Amino acid sequence: NVGVVNVPDGRLEKLEELVNPERVVPATVEIVDIAGLVRGASKGEGLGNQCLGNIRETEAIIHVLRCVEDGNVVHVDGSVDPIRDKEVIDTELQFKDLETVEKRVAKVRKQAEIGDKDAKKEFEVLTIIQETLEQGKSARVAPLNDIQLELAKTFHLLTLKPVLYVCNVDESSVVNGNEYSEKVQATVAEENAEVILISAAAEADIASLDTYEERQEFLQDMGLEEAGVNKLIRSAYRLLDLQTYFTAGEKEVRAWTIERGMTAPQAAGVIHTD
Predict the structure, then answer these.
(1) What pTM does this model have?
(2) What angle do CA 114, 118, 121 make, to 5 degrees?
(3) Among 13, 34, 92, 120, which is most buried by a count of CB atoms within 10 Å?
(4) Residue 156: which of 225, 272, 55, 45 has the closest Cα?
(5) What is the pLDDT of residues 124-182, one digit of tens each?
(6) Whole-angstrom Cα distance, residue 114 to residue 130?
(7) Which tens digits make up the pLDDT trace of 213-263?
């Protein structure tokens, strides 16, 4: 299931007030809902290779972890344990990456041994990643310098992708979290990954309300300034290392998506190649 979502941005609303254009075009992010992986997926269990192939095509991973007790929603493993759930996914992705790395190592080893400079650099990076994966860690925590990291990106590894952890909590825990979400934050500390709290049940309730005023009142009662889905979309946008700039005129106010660090001519190129 693919959803194209608008990136919430208060600056766009301000520009609309100032310019009063015919139309407003926000920035968007494409989010793909992929079926959950099961144990053995790397060996073809469940939807196995199809799921892994879908993940390979994405630029980043949003990993939703259940951190809420609910007798009406059965857990596939019979109990709520977000750390176990995270490890199941991590292990399957790591196994698949290890398979990819081992094949690549076998291919470049000989070239590296006969003195091919590029092959030696690749072999060195692959070896570091292989050692990390064999320790049960993801490639994104491998001790690579910036140049090695750029080379590693060409391998298209699943566990090298940036990740955002979303803890699905109960409504009362959406501000400060609960024991489950605290365990998640402690577990992912070395990954340098963002963890956000969302109550899926509350988000569904907010989405069903008819007016902006009703939604704001609901959020205030929960102690929130905005819907969790807005926070999620913005976090995903940052995770992709994107930023926004704007064009404004009577016909259109528009948010343009560029990669962080682009120069002004590169940013202009995004418009002129649209």
Answers:
(1) 0.80
(2) 95
(3) 92
(4) 55
(5) 999 999 999 999 989 988 999 999 999 999 988 999 999 999 999 998 888 888 899 99
(6) 21
(7) 888 888 888 888 888 888 888 888 888 889 899 999 999 999 999 999 999
